[in-house]
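Box 3.1 A note on notation
Throughout this textbook, protein chains are presented in two layers. The first layer is the amino acid sequence; the second is a C-alpha cell string describing backbone geometry. Keep the layers aligned when reading.
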Amino acid sequence: MESAPSRRNGGERAASLAVAMLSVSRFLAIAALLVAAPGCSRNPATGRVEALVPKQPEEIALGQEAALQIDESVVVLDEAERATTLLDRVGSKIASTTERGDLPWTFTLVDDPEPNAFALPGGSIYVTRGLMTYLGRESELAAVLAHECAHVAARHGVRRLQRIANQQNRNGRSSLEVQLPAVNQIGTKALARLLEHSRDEELLADELALRYIKRANYPALALADVLEMLGTLHGGPGLEHPGTHPTTVRRRALIHRAVGRATGSADDDAGYLAVIDGMRFGPDPRQGYFKDDHFVHPDMGFSLRLPEHWTVEYRGGRAVAKNLASDTYLVVSESRAESVRAGMNEVFLRDVGKKDPWEGQLLGSPAAMAEFSTVHGDRPIHAFVGFIEFDGKIIQVVAFSSSAQWPAKETREVFKSFAAATSAQKSVDPMRIELMEVDKTATLAEIYKESPSSVPLQVIARINHLDPGDEVVAGRKLKRVRGFNPDFKSVRPGLRP
C-alpha cells in the first residue's frame, strides 16, 4: 500500500534513481538467493498451484534475512509505546485470520513521516508513523495491515524479489552501489517502491484483505476509506498511479461492489486518536532543516551554507539539499567508518579513480573529499564524497548528478562551509499531533482560523479526512499540528517559527 506519487519530472526521477540505489544497495544482495532451489507448491491464500516458488521454510529464511538488512536502514519509533502496542495487537489479530497464521509475523512502527506500509516474505510488516498520523480509526489500521498481510499470504513478495534477482543477474550490480556501501537510506519510499506490486497483485490483496477484515470483525468499508485518504494525498482521485497500477478510484469501486454501499465504518475513533496524540508529524527538524541559507542538523550539531539557488526537500524525515537546475542532490549522514581516511578508502576501494582529491583539516579536524564518475545502467553519474571528523563522529557528505555540467566546485564549497551549529539553530521542537475538542459547531476552515496549526489548512483537512468547508459539530475531537515546521514553503507567513 505504497503512497508515494509515481509521476515525477526529470530531476525528480534522477533523484529517485539515486535514492533507490543508496537505500537498498545492501538489501539487493539477498535477492540473488531467490534464484536457487525453487519448487512447486499450492498457494495457501488462493488455492492455486504455483511453480518456481520457494517452500515456506526458505521463504521465511529469505524474509528474515531481508528484514535484518532493512532493520539496519529504517529507524524504529521507540517513543510511541501505545502506538507500538496497538500495531502489534491489531496486526496479530489480522494475521491470525489469514491462511498463514503460523508464520512468524512481526509488526514494526518506523520513524518516517511518509505515509507508507510494506511487507516482506515470511510476515515482517512495516508501518510508518506518517501513515499512523493520517489514519483516524483502529479499523483503518486493521485495513492497512490486512492488505499487507494479504501480500504475504499470497506470496507476492517472493515473486517480487525473484524479479529483482533476475534483473540483478542480467544487469549486475551498479558500480555506484559497490562504491558507496556505507550511505544510509533516506526514507521508506525507495523500499516501498522496490517491493511495489503489480496491478493484479494489488487487486488480489484488496480482495483477500476484505476477507481478513471481516474475519477479524472490523467494518469492511474501512479499506475503502483508507484508499480514499491515500488518493487525496496524491493530488486527486485517480492521479496517484501510472497505467500499470490500479487507481484508488477503481479499487474503492470494487470494494464497495463487494461489500455493498453501507455508509462506512462505525467503530469509535476516540481510542485510536488517544494513541496517536503527541506523535511526531512530518519531517523531524532535529534530522535536518533549512533556514537562512543554512542546512542545519541539530542532532549531529553542524550546519552547511547552501548557495541561494539550492533548496531542501525532505525524504524519510531527512533533509536533502538539491540544485534542480544542475540535477544535483546532496545527502549528509553519519558514516560507520572508523576514520576519515577509512571512509575514503571504503568508497575508492575498487579501482575507482579519484578526481581532484583533497585531504586536510576543517574546524581543526581531519577532513577529505574527492570526485568520481560512474554509470548506473546506461546513465552517467557524477559524484562527490567528503568526510569530516566532528564531535566524535565521522560525517559523510555525498553529492550526485546525472548532468555533465554538475556544479562540482560549488559542491566543494558547500562541504568546506561545514561549521558547528549554534545553540539557537539546535533549539527546535518537532511538530506533533495535538488533539483539540471543538467547542462550537463551525466549518473546518473557521476552526483553523481561530486555532491555527503549524501546517496549512489543507493538511489539517487531510489528516482529519475532511474538506475545509465541512461542518464540524461541537464536541468532536480534531487533530491539529503544533511545533517547528522545517518546510517553510508550506507554512503561512504568520506561522513561521
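Confidence is low (pLDDT under 50) at residues 2-37, 173-187, 236-244, 490-497. The longest helix spans residues 10-28.
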